Amino acid sequence: MILNVLSIVGSVAFAASGAIVAMDEDYDIFGILVLGFITAFAGGMMRNLIVGIPVAAVWHQTGAFIAVLAALGITLVVPGRLLKWGWKLMVYFDALGLSTFAVEGALYAERIHVSAGTVMVAAAMTGAGGGVIRDLLAQRKPLILRSDTYAIWALLAGAVIGLRWVSPHVAWQVYVVLAGTFVLRVLSIVFHWHLPHVESPNRDKAQAVDK
Amino acid sequence: MILNVLSIVGSVAFAASGAIVAMDEDYDIFGILVLGFITAFAGGMMRNLIVGIPVAAVWHQTGAFIAVLAALGITLVVPGRLLKWGWKLMVYFDALGLSTFAVEGALYAERIHVSAGTVMVAAAMTGAGGGVIRDLLAQRKPLILRSDTYAIWALLAGAVIGLRWVSPHVAWQVYVVLAGTFVLRVLSIVFHWHLPHVESPNRDKAQAVDK
Amino acid sequence: MILNVLSIVGSVAFAASGAIVAMDEDYDIFGILVLGFITAFAGGMMRNLIVGIPVAAVWHQTGAFIAVLAALGITLVVPGRLLKWGWKLMVYFDALGLSTFAVEGALYAERIHVSAGTVMVAAAMTGAGGGVIRDLLAQRKPLILRSDTYAIWALLAGAVIGLRWVSPHVAWQVYVVLAGTFVLRVLSIVFHWHLPHVESPNRDKAQAVDK
Prior knowledge:
Three copies of one chain form a homotrimer. Chain A is an all-alpha fold. Chain A has one domain (2-195). Chain A contains nine helices and no strands. The first copy, chain A, has helices spanning 2-24, 29-51, 62-77, 80-111, 116-137, 143-146, 150-162, 171-190, 203-210. In chain A, helix 1 (2-24) packs across helix 4 and helix 4 runs parallel beside helix 7 (150-162). The N and C termini of chain A lie far apart (53 Å). The A-C interface holds A 49-52, 114-115, 117-118, 132, 136, 139-142, 144-149, 151-152, 194-203, 206-207, 210 and C 20-32, 34-35, 45, 49, 54-56, 58-59, 65, 75-76, 80-84, 87, 136-140.
């Protein structure tokens, strides 16, 4: 029940991030709606596809659909100046979305008895997959592949659930994972945590080929 | 029956648009064939995936496959100078493709008793999805997200069928929807209709992050 | 059995190509891992999706998963200077991956009695699909669509198996197809074979629209 509410909050935060990327790219209002919906729901679809749940199951989230539609409507009619004030809060909503989606994705996968590795991928897919599709549709290099610890926390939540370090059937333990993921995500923003990069063995050659 | 013929005409028009984008990007003849086939069939595949029909059902369209293969063969051997004359007609074939695919997608979705919202998405996916994949494979920002009313008419056709304003089982009503979609698409080209854009609350910041 | 071993070798070669592209794009270590895994496994997933095999079947390749994880781990810790020496061998491993994946994809498709055309697409998808997704996630124009004969040999292997010119149940005939694909791929690298390009009937106009 709480998970349902959080999932709707997360969908709305993800939809808002998609809408803002679309506005940044000067897409029209159709593009804004599409990127909003896709950022909110594509992660769950990809998880379903890869874990082996029917993709069409995504249509059962009626509550989230209505909330996303309402949020995108507000984004389109409220002047950008006012939305600016909401932007600072957005990263927290987005962190809430990430942690809720990751936990939700892990529980989905765990329920059909897949391996711990699959649970981790399902958590990362659900939490971060929508953002990757959003970036591709905006012709950007996916942010999470470049410089962010975003998906790491989703993988971690998946590991904790997939390896049964907590029981997926005990509500408070699930909420502890969710809260931990949220806190780690917020900390990683506050302290600008980044993952290391690696020098390519092949940089010059590859760029020459690319020209 | 008429729907089948129109669907083949639409597939060919979509394949031609894919082939032309591939030529514009200086892809080789394999790339031209791939973009042609993908533009013609990826929309239907994505619709199947999202609506819950087996994706492999796309292989049953033998007629459309042969027509697309023949059309792409012609595109490759006929000199570009001659094809140029066909280009002006192409937008009308493409509009025919959009309206046929949208109606077809809506009927597919309606047949398995999904909600009106799903029927709309299925119509838009079938009509416009192939073009989005085409643009991504050509590393372009998807045209329909930026400046075109393209997908709107597919959504509208989906709404009319999904909400049962017409009966999907009465042929002439289906053809009225198809013709209406076609006319609206052609009007939107002739009169340069565009959807509004929205100023981003976040433009400077987002571009700074992107650098 | 030999096919299993070759398939693991191919997965590792594909994963390495994904990791190197990620390094070239200055992605962080998460991006390197993601591109490595996706290049190795996305082709097979797309083949499953399109041929009608459950996508989740990809999770059964435990051996390949462990090998890819190990290879990516080595790529991350061994200094780029040393990896440079392996790079020249990489094209041969990659050619091995292409031919093994193509044959494997064709056999998968053939087993469920689809048409020869579907077998060809399955072979090309399995052999070249991962590379396309890799290029999209790195925001590059897919190499195989531009200037390489890469996927042609996979299509050819698919045709030979799909049209039953060899029996998919006689091991030595399958290995002949595999070896032939490998040799053709290596020859096409050594002699810089390219497919022809076609002048667009529409180049100036399309570029103007794109601006």
